[in-house]
Amino acid sequence: MTHTHRATADHGELDDGRRGSRERAGRYALLPLRVFLGVTFIYAGIDKLTDSAFMSATGTGSIGEMMNAVRDSSAVPALVDLALKNPEGFGYAIALGEVAVGIGTLIGLLARLAALGGALISLSLWLTVSWQTDPYYYGNDLAYLMAWLPLVLAGASLFSLDALIAARRRTP
User: Fold this and answer.
1) Which residue in 66, 78, 121, 75 sits closest to 98, CA to CA?
2) Taking a C-beta distance cutoff of 8 angstroms, is the pair 111, 119 a contact?
3) How confident is the model over 86-103, as pLDDT tens digits?
4) What is the per-residue pLDDT across 53-78, written as a single tens digit (0 to 9) for each?
């Protein structure tokens, strides 16, 4: 069977249609990641803020108990020691940071900065809480850190306040 090349306008339109589909898919590629990370971080922050046991220095399920448990196995014990100086304050900082990062990511406001915040929260949790997880791929904080990096690089170009603000700046 011989392969023939069609030199018609239809051939070009088919190529443009496929190319257009790919480009459109590429533009939307980070949207599911944005929604997942935004919703997950909002949920994680609210979950912490509404759990009185977690927001305590001592006791079962408290931030203080968790930090004491991981202190000796963390990659950066000094970071855990810093958190242990005021476990409740650290718990509120993480929880409020998660909510702010989640909202910024979900609505696309200062999206790169929000993603950087998410990456830093994930990095700090990986180096402290989940560092000792063996094998490493069982811990989720490293995966979250890697998930944030494309959003740090690309930002939120679709369905975002950043895009809306940029469009308004361009229009005279």
Assistant:
1) 121
2) no
3) 999 999 999 999 999 999
4) 999 999 999 999 999 999 999 999 99
Cα–Cα distance measured from residue 91 to residue 103, given in angstroms and rounded to the nearest whole number: 18
Q: Which residue has the tokens 């069977």?
A: 1
Q: Over the chain, what is the mean pLDDT?
A: 90
What's the pTM?
A: 0.85
How many other CB atoms are there within 10 angstroms of residue 131's CB atom?
19
The Cα–Cα gap between 115 and 138 comes to: 23
- For every residue of 110-128, DSSP letters joined together read SHHHHHHHHHHHHHHHHHH
Q: Is residue 114 within 8 Å of 104, Cβ to Cβ? A: yes
Query: How far from 4 is each of 7, 14, 33, 77, CA to CA, in Å?
Result: 9, 16, 42, 67
